[in-house]
Amino acid sequence: MKTIDLLIIDTQNDFCDPRGALYVQGAEADSSRLADFINKQSSVINNIHITLDSHHQYDIAHPMYWLNPLGNHPEPFTIISVDDVKCRRWVTSKEEDRKHGEDYVTALALKGKYSLCIWPPHCLIGSWGTQIQTDVFNALSDWEITNRAIADKIYKGSNPGTEHYGALEAEIPQSDDETTKMHIDLVEKLNESHMILIAGQALDYCVANTVRQLAQQIGDENIEKLVLLEDCCSSVDPISGISKFFLEELSSKGMKIVKSTDFASNI
Questions:
Q1: What is the DSSP string of 25-65?
Q2: Residue 266 pLDDT exceeds 90
Q3: Nearest one of 128, 170, 165 to 13, comparing CA atoms
Q4: Residue 71: pLDDT over 70
Q5: What average pLDDT does this structure show over 79-105?
Q6: Mean pLDDT on 49-56
Q7: Is-contact 187 158, C-beta < 8 A?
Q8: Omega into 264 within 30° of 0, i.e. cis?
Q9: Burial, 6: exposed, middle or buried (Cβ in 10 Å; 0-12, 13-18, 19+)?
Q10: How far is residue 147's CA from residue 125's CA, in Å, rounded to a whole number?
């Protein structure tokens, strides 16, 4: 029997509601389409996994973690480079975190993916912003009731010492925190499926990183299982080219890209 899993990435109020702390333009319409898709395809979706960004105020990618020589915190969207840290243009606000902050920014640079970006505090644990967007939440609840099943919730981002864009592994895993290391159980669950549908926010950051991590773990021979619902994702910065590069990269390896309204289970 063919099994279909739906992987939803960070469809939370802070990303999907115009009042959210890190609203992604278009995400509320994405969420409405995703909810409609879940309702219409309820009988063919065997498993649902939803990732939930979950942060503290004191977080390496939030303003209060850093100070400049005047004692001011960085503005949101400030980029902190290795040179900034070495020249002490930015230092951690807690002395005991100084070495970690320097090591972390250096490790990011060595990976060659992103420099450290300071985001507005978002998806704070327990807040309205971290809750699942209402339309999607209601669709998930109806799916659970109809199918007598449980939508798997995956929390990420609660370690203040590392970023956690991809749901499977933090940007820089921490040796003393298993939640920052590769989520092998989730990889294995997804890889058992014949098709993995993907939706969520934001396409250029958490969606792209999650899909790349998953593709690496399941191997090139299984990337054809991946199906991105393109009308259920939006980008933080649609003109940067990050999303375009990601879509071209993964589609060239076999990932399918479809609109939720055009989906067919035999695709």
A1: TTHHHHHHHHHHHHHHTTTT--EEEEEEE-B-SS-TTSGGG
A2: no
A3: 128
A4: yes
A5: 97
A6: 98
A7: no
A8: no
A9: buried
A10: 29
Residue 267: pLDDT band with limits 50, 70, 90:
low
Residue with tokens 């115009």: 18
Neighbouring C-beta atoms of residue 76, cutoff 10 Å: 16
The tens digit of pLDDT for each residue in 10-26 reads 999 999 999 999 999 99
**Three-state DSSP class for residue 170:** coil
Show the domains of the chain with their CATH numbers.
4-55+129-262 (3.40.50.850), 63-117 (no CATH)
Helices and strands (H and E) in the chain: how many: 8, 10
**Tens digits of residue pLDDT in 124-148:** 999 999 999 999 999 999 999 999 9
Q: Is 86 helix (H, G, I), strand (E, B) or coil?
A: helix
Instruction: Please give the model's pTM, rounded to 2 decimal places.
Output: 0.96
Name residues whose C-beta falls within 8 Å of residue 2's C-beta, 6 or more positions apart in sequence: 194, 195, 265
Kindly list the strands in the beta sheet with 4-9, ordered across the sheet, starting from the edge strand earlier in the chain: 152-156, 47-53, 4-9, 195-200, 226-229, 256-258
pLDDT at site 200: 98
Written as six digits, the tokens of 259 are 């609109």
State residue 41's pLDDT score: 97
Cα–Cα–Cα angle for 15, 17, 22, rounded to 5 degrees: 35
| Six token digits for residue 37 | 């898709």
Q: What is the mean pLDDT of residues 169-186?
A: 97
Contact 179, 132 (CB under 8 A): no
Tokens at 20, concatenated: 């959210």
Joined together, the tokens standing for residue 47 give: 């498993």
Total number of residues shown for the chain: 267
C-beta separation of 223 from 252 below 8 A: no
